[in-house]
Amino acid sequence: GEDVEQSLFLSVREGDSSVINCTYTDSSSTYLYWYKQEPGAGLQLLTYIFSNMDMKQDQRLTVLLNKKDKHLSLRIADTQTGDSAIYFCAEGGYNKLIFGAGTRLAVHP
Amino acid sequence: DTEVTQTPKHLVMGMTNKKSLKCEQHMGHRAMYWYKQKAKKPPELMFVYSYEKLSINESVPSRFSPECPNSSLLNLHLHALQPEDSALYLCASSQGPSGQETQYFGPGTRLLVL
Hints:
By secondary structure, chain A is mainly β. Chain A is built from no helices and 11 strands. In chain A, the strands form 2 sheets. In chain A, strands 2, 4, 5, 9, 10 and 11 form a 6-stranded mixed β-sheet that branches.
């Protein structure tokens, strides 16, 4: 069946890099997504990667995809306090997104 | 512009009330979605409209009634809700044709049922 797994919590120091990991099961997914959710807010699309790519970089964000191991990661360079949020990994199914449980990122001085 | 708007932002209702949530997008998207999100959980899909027709109902109780009056608008009518229906209700939209396009979310309506 479809399943997406993420670690639940990550704590980093301000200025360091954060790496959030995700594993998925459906190899037919065309796109894989990272969404950010701040407290009390909706989901903000951060970035996505097409399934035939290995890497995508967008300013401070780097997404790595290992299709063989069905592993996706999001690296945030120079992490700031404004990056504190929950980060959801999601795989794109037909007319639906399958979300992981979300990783809470805490940034401390 | 990738904006999806939702009103109201907050809603408190009693179990006998009837209320509606509204979602709007002007990106020309032809698929629209309702999700329910409980605290500390990921969003759960409720309904999908594709080209203004209901295409997916994830076995949602009939006290939730979706409506898509036109390609830009999506409503969720609420009647006789239970306290366990209290949650953040998120609307999303995507371009639509293949069913695999990127979904853009609104800010949500936070619903409290007393």
